[in-house]
Amino acid sequence: MPFKIVASQCTGCSACEQECPNVAISEKGGIFVVDPKKCTECIGYFDEPQCVAVCPVDNTCVLDMARPRYAS
Amino acid sequence: MDVSAERKASDGSATMGKARQAFTERMSCSGTGAGGMAGCTPHAVSADLTSEIWEKVKNHPCYSEEAHHHYARMHVAVAPVCNIQCNYCNRKYDCANESRPGVVSEKLSPEQAADKVLAVASTIPQLTVLGIAGPGDPLANPAKTFKTFELVNKVAPDIKLCLSTNGLALLDHVDAIAKCNVNHVTITINAIDPHVGARIYPWIFYKHKRHVGIDAAKILIERQLQGLGVLAARDILCKINSVMIPGINDRHLVEVNKEVKARGAFLHNIMPLISSPEHGTVFGLNGQRGPTAWELKTLQDSCEGEMKMMRHCRQCRADAVGLLGDDRRAEFTTERIAALGHKYDVEARKAYQARVENVRHAKVAATRRQLAELADCADAVKVLVAVATKGSALINEHFGHAKEFQIYELSATGAKIVDHRPVQLYCGGGYAEEDRLPTIIRAINDCHAVFVARIGGCPKAELIKAGIEPVDEYAHAFIEKSAIAWFKRYLDRVKTGEIKHVERGEAATAHASIISAA
Ligand code: SF4
Ligand code: SF4
Ligand code: SF4
C-alpha cells in the first residue's frame, strides 16, 4: 500500500517532499500529494516511512487502504 | 518554531569571558561611532575581538538594546520545514494578527525573498539586518536558506545576516554559515537536562528516524551545545533564546544560563511562554500557563551576572519587518513589492545611518550628563516606569495610541530597559474601549510612572487613582535622560517628605493576559 496525505490536515510545510527517497511527493496547487506508483513505503531505503516520521501533524501521512501493499 | 543551542569548548572560555565582559562595557557606553570609543573608559578597548564584536552588533536591533531604538530588522519566511516538534508551537494555523515565532502568512522563494529585502531596504533606510527564522527551522531548509543569503549578499551587501535555529542541524552547516558571512546565530535552548527537555520536545527527526522522549531530548541538547561551541570557536556570535515555561524549566534556566555562558554565548534572551488554547499547541491545550511579568523579571535578574541579558525581545514573527515593536510587514506583500519598483541606493542608506549615529551620540551624552547629577544620591531605591515610544529612543507616543509600553528600571546607577508590555489584542475586535484602560493599568501596575507624549484628562485621572504618575512634560525628549531627571526629582520629593516611597504591586501577565482576553 502506498502512503497518502490527508489534505485537510496538511500544513503544506513540504517536509515530506524533502525527505521522500522516491521523489513520490509533490505539490499541486498548494496541496501535497503522494504518487502511488512511486511510493515504496520507504522499503529498500529506511526502516520508517520518512513522510510519517517527519510530518508535524499526526495521522496526516497514512497508508492508503484502497491499494495493495507494496511488494518489492 | 525552533529550539536550538550550541556549545563552546571550555579551553576558549577564558578569552570569551574577557571578550564578553569588554563587550558588556562597550554596550553600556554604546553610541560611539564606527570604531570610535569616545567617552568610554580606556580598558574596554583592550582586545581586538572587542572592537570586532562591537562592529558586528552595533547596528543590530536584536543584539543591542540601544540599537533597537534606531535600526530595523526584517525576517523572510523561506524555511517552512522543521525537524523537531516543540510543545509551544503549532505549525498548522496561521493567524494574521498573531505575533509569535513559527507564525507566518506568506512563504517565499529565495528569489522572492531577495526582492523583498531590496524593496524594504530601499523604503526603510534604517534596515540593517535580515534574519531567517522560520516558520520552520532555517537549517532544516538549508538549500533555500543559504540561497537566500547568497542572493542578498549580492544585491544588498551592506545588510547583516542572521539566523535562528533549534540547533539540531547546526553542526552540519557551520561552513555554509561562515561562508555566507552570517555573523549572528540564535540558538533556542530550553533545557540542558534531557528529562526537562523531554517535557518540551515530544520528538525530533534525526538521521532518517523519529526519536521520542528522553532519547530525542538527549540528541537535541548534545547537538545544540556542540554547535554553540563550534560557532563560538569560529567567532560567529551566538545568542541563546530560552522560553520560560513555569513548572517545567523555570528554575532549570539558571543552569542553562551558566552552561551557555561557559560555552561562549554572548547574549541570553529569556522569553515568556505565549500560551493559549486558541493556538492549538500542546501547552495551550493542556492549560500550561506562561510566567507573570514578575516571575520573568526575577529570573532574568538572577541570570544577569557578567553576561548581558536581553530584555527587549519582541518574539517577532518569522516574517516581521521594521523596527522592533512596529511591524510593517503588511506594506510588503509579494504583489505590493512587484508594484513598488525599487532602486537600491547604498549611499543614501549610509547617509541616513550616519544621521542616526549622530542622534545616538547626542542621546548617550545627554544621558551621561543627567546621570552625573544622580551621583550624589546613594539611594537603594529602585522603581519601574513605563514609556510610550514609537522609536528613536524618544518619548514620542500618545498614551492612547501606544501598542506597547517599554519598561525601564530606574536606580542610582541609571535607567535600564527591562521589559516591554504589549497592550493591544493580537486578534482585535470584541475589545470595548472602556475595557482598554483597566487592561493597560493592569499591564503596567508595577510601575511608579508612565511617560507619554500626550495624555487625555480621563485616563490621567484613572492612572493617578491607580497610583501611577502620568508624566507628559518630557514629550519628544530622550527616554533615558528624561527618566533619570524624573527619578532625581522623585528621590528629592521623597527626601523632603513631599511624597512617600511605596513599593508597587505586581503587573498582570503581560503577554498571556492580553491573549486570554481575546
Ligand atoms: S512512505 Fe516513503 S516512499 Fe512513500 S511517500 Fe512516504 S517517504 Fe515517500
Ligand atoms: S510533512 Fe505533513 S504537513 Fe508537511 S507537507 Fe507533508 S503531509 Fe503536509
Ligand atoms: S524574535 Fe527576538 S531576536 Fe528575533 S528579531 Fe525578534 S526581537 Fe530580535
UniProtKB/TrEMBL annotation, chain A:
Q: Which domain of life is it from?
A: Bacteria
Q: Which residues form the 4Fe-4S ferredoxin-type domain?
A: 1-30
Give one Pfam family.
Answer: Fer4_10
Query: Which InterPro entries does the entry mention?
Result: 4Fe4S_Fe-S-bd, 4Fe4S_Fe_S_CS
Q: Which cofactor does it need?
A: [4Fe-4S] cluster
Q: Which UniProt keywords apply?
A: 4Fe-4S, Electron transport, Iron, Iron-sulfur, Metal-binding, Transport
- What GO molecular function annotation could you give as one example from this UniProt entry? metal ion binding
Q: What is this protein called?
A: Ferredoxin
| Organism of derivation | Bradyrhizobium centrolobii
TrEMBL record, chain B:
What name has this protein been given in UniProt? FeMo cofactor biosynthesis protein NifB
Protein function: Involved in the biosynthesis of the iron-molybdenum cofactor (FeMo-co or M-cluster) found in the dinitrogenase enzyme of the nitrogenase complex in nitrogen-fixing microorganisms. NifB catalyzes the crucial step of radical SAM-dependent carbide insertion that occurs concomitant with the insertion of a 9th sulfur and the rearrangement/coupling of two [4Fe-4S] clusters into a [8Fe-9S-C] cluster, the precursor to the M-cluster.
Family annotation (InterPro entries): Aldolase_TIM, Di-Nase_FeMo-co_biosynth, DiNase_FeMo-co_biosyn_sf, MoaA_NifB_PqqE_Fe-S-bd_CS, Nase_CF_NifB, NifB_C, rSAM, rSAM_sf
Which Pfam families has this protein been placed in? Nitro_FeMo-Co, Radical_SAM
The UniProt record lists the Radical SAM core domain at: 68-319
Report the GO molecular function annotations.
4 iron, 4 sulfur cluster binding; lyase activity; metal ion binding
Q: Which UniProt keywords apply?
A: 4Fe-4S, Iron, Iron-sulfur, Lyase, Metal-binding, Nitrogen fixation, S-adenosyl-L-methionine
The reply on keyword Lyase is: yes
Needed cofactors, names only, are: [4Fe-4S] cluster
Alphabetized NCBIfam families for the sequence: nifB (TIGR01290)
Q: What pathway does the annotation place this protein in?
A: Cofactor biosynthesis; Fe-Mo cofactor biosynthesis
Origin organism is Bradyrhizobium neotropicale
- Keyword Manganese among UniProt keywords: no
The lineage's top-level taxon is Bacteria
